[in-house]
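Example record

Each entry pairs one chain with its bound ligand, magnesium ion.
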Amino acid sequence: MLQETAQPLAETTTEGNAHVELTRLVKHFEEVVAVDNLDLTIERGSFTCLLGPSGCGKTTTLRMISGFVEPTGGDILISGRSQRGVPPHKRKTSIVFQEYALFPHMTVRQNVGYGLKVHHTPKAERTERVDRILEFMGLTSMANRLPSMLSGGQQQRVALARSLVMEPEVLLMDEPLSNLDAKLRVRVRTELKEIQRRLGITTIYVTHDQEEALAMSDRIAVMDEGVLQQYGTPWELYFNPNNRFVADFIGANAFVDVRIEELTDSTVGLAIGSQSIELPRASITADIENTGQAASLSLRPEGIGIRPAAEHDDTADERRTLHGTVRMYQFLGAYVRYWVAVEEQEIIVDDHNPKRRGILSGKVALHLGEWEAQLFPATG
Ligand SMILES: Nc1ncnc2c1ncn2[C@@H]1O[C@H](COP(=O)(O)OP(=O)(O)OP(=O)(O)O)[C@@H](O)[C@H]1O
Ligand SMILES: [Mg+2]
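Structure tokens for the complex follow.
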């Protein structure tokens, strides 16, 4: 279990050096509010993810930064300069799309050099820059191949090389890995992150994949329906979601309807149907103040212990134990995920050491960890 003092291993952000600033940014498409008063400060050299469900305004935000979509209101500053009226090709940004859109009849080298050619970069400089980026990206041996002779991951690298050769200050990527299969996606995201780190290039990356965002980002901006829900490090978002939406979107959570029974300086007593438990007061978000109040308890599957009811010793820590019945399970190799019915509600529990006991069924006792639970105001 996590100690109170646990900290993320490395903080890689370059605090206090704003590179891209969105101020009260708004985009309306007729009656649709795609982006609603978005304020965001992105540090120089950082990797920032825009994360959220389909239609939440991620692509629209990225396109406003690149200049392809005109904001309805607010402003975008790059290195402190307003981008109002600055056309896309004059911005210090470059965008990599989900469809790599490589030219099929051009070799890797020609694809990568195309932008420089359009910008009338002299031939000698062009050759040198293209060679350098091909080398950097490990593409030299494929320089004379056509895109059709490359794997999906290699094509994605060419698309990235084509952006990087332009030496943008800000690299924008819109779901660049979504055409790759699951295994390759994990490998390419590790590569991408390593390239970003080596170049120290400010990167804004759009994804709806929470795992990708957690794995890659210095900071994540979670959006819903055009509105920023939380902006923080992966660690902050995971362990201190500031609302139910963020808790629900990041990680596999169960939400349980509870009633606040007792509040002390250090603890909160909760009723779940006819059962009672006690959690640290620190589990509470600001909006819960009264006993008798209905609330929603968010539980991380990895924060709950599970054992057969017969093995449960009810003299032990009963205030942290819930009793339920296994409804369903999935064996996922490294762990078994259980869906456990507790007072007609459902709690998800992961047993990360399944070989010890085999698959459980029937009546079980659930032991709640201290720091994985959060209480939010009841919805509806
Ligand atoms: N050109 C457009 N005209 C009208 N509505 C648009 C236009 N572009 C986007 N929208 C709307 O704006 C909202 C935000 O769209 P956006 O493409 O930014 O979402 P997204 O977060 O990138 O979603 P996805 O994950 O599906 O790519 C959606 O409701 C979408 O239908
Ligand atoms: Mg999109």
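The pocket of adenosine-5'-triphosphate (ligand 1) is lined by residues 29, 32, 34, 52, 54-60, 208 (CB under 6 Å).
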